[in-house]
Design goal:
Length: 258
Amino acid sequence: MKIAVSGKGGVGKTTLSSLLARYWAKHGYRVLAVDADPDANLGSALGIDTTGMVPVANMDQLIHERTGAKPGTVGGFFKLNPKVDDLPEALGRERDGVRLLVMGTIKKGGGGCICPESTLLKALMSHLVLYHKDLIIMDMEAGIEHLGRGTAQAVDRFVVVVEPGHRSIETAAKVRQLTRDMGLQKVFAVGSKVRNEAQVDFLLKNLDGIPLVGVLPFSEEIAAADLESRPPNLDDPIIHSAIEEIALHLERDETAAA
């Protein structure tokens, strides 16, 4: 499976991404976790030491070597299909069956245009989604800038993480429209920080056709793990039950889609 996880900042998408990655690794999958969020904190949620780990988008020398052009340059010629197949192994760090790759993002003005940095990132993401054989979980920002049209259509599941609140629902609707524009129909929602059935009902009534495949309840263990900058305990009964239900729904839907 190739799963992209998105949502408004602070809703818990990195927590969900890390828990799913660790759950599937524990059940025998080789998992590649891709941090494509500018905040880049998936490593701490996975318990992977990212000291000295430079996001791919910031590797100027690598970008120059692979594209033939220096990052930040305007005009000139550079490769539109740079070699990227060796990068997940060369640049990733692994723990307990989960390999982390930090993508980074193009932060300068006009970063969405055709430039060496964005070309390498999109080529790498396309390789991961189209050719990589591991189970891939991508922790995305609210947009889907790293995904091209063809790449997005190859994603098996696009999961939008939502809190029981109108701002989070509005972000989910925008993400849903973006994915529709790119021809991606396999979009699902996961509730986060849910405290009671009334909040579940709120999500069901306001998701406007986005299927809800599970909820991650508000958890003292998750809150404590965030404060202590460590991974949440996957064996915590509340966490394990919720993640197992979400994972099984996604697996079941994947089987049906195949």
